[in-house]
Amino acid sequence: MDENEDDIIAAFGHILLAGVATKALGTTNGTSFTHPGMHANYLLHGLTGGFHFVSKITGLNVQPVYRITKMAVQYLALPSLMADLNYENKYISVAHFATGLLPFAVAVSGNDSPHLSNFAISVNVISLCYYAIKHTCHEYAWYTAGSALVTYFGFSYVNMLFPIGLAITEFLAHKLYYANFGPPPTKEELKEAERKKKEEEKKKKEAEKKKIEAEKAAKKQAMLAEKAKEKEKAKAAAEKKAKEKEKDKQQQVPM
Fold first, then answer.
1. pTM of the prediction?
2. Please, where are the H alpha helices in the chain?
3. Cα–Cα distance between 151 and 161 in angstroms, integer?
4. How many CB atoms neighbour CB 205 within 10 A?
5. Three-state SS for 183?
6. Of the candidate ranges 38-42, 55-59, 107-111, 251-255, the one whose mean pLDDT is the lowest
7. What are phi and psi of 61, to 5 degrees?
8. For the chain, what are the domain ranges?
9. Using CA atoms, how far apart are residues 210 and 206, in angstroms rounded to an integer?
10. What's the rounded Cα separation, in Å, for the pair 23 and 206?
């Protein structure tokens, strides 16, 4: 296989990546400060990669842009994914995004370091595994972590396989977006939710209290009924004994 054929296959792989990322963008919704960072990174890299590897045919030089989008895919994609998945906790979300943004800024400035790249990828792959453990219903977190690990550490220098690996990672990752990335709740909404929660707890306690009181009343009623039965039995026994004595007296009277 000659170099031109390799470039065509690589271009096809990047177009495939762009297609998968477009589908992912079309099936997620809402707005957060990084959303949809991972999908946008993959889409741009797929498009620029498609043009880059057919530049010998088209004469269009997009190598500088392709280089930047590859850095973005390398440094920002997984941190953006983890930032989005942890959007409910803004501190954890910002921390994840920072693990990619800072190395990306260093790389763009011309001081690219494989160690920084490996660090950004490793931290977020480990975090994704923790996310999979924490949310046991999301087996796709495991699949995405495994695919990202193989793609970034195994295929990153193979032009034909790297975009295909990214496409698989992207396909698996968009399955994780089960939540609506809407704005965080306001203070008033949080207070209202807390008030409703307290009311529900109060109602639950009152219901439990009434249930206990009803059980006590039922037991008391049963005890009273049992005592009444015992009194009735004692009265009946006394009456029977009295009748027997009266009968004995009558039998002792001489004819």
1. 0.62
2. 3-27, 37-52, 55-58, 63-75, 77-85, 90-108, 114-134, 139-154, 162-173, 187-252
3. 8
4. 10
5. coil
6. 251-255
7. -95, 110
8. 3-176
9. 6
10. 51
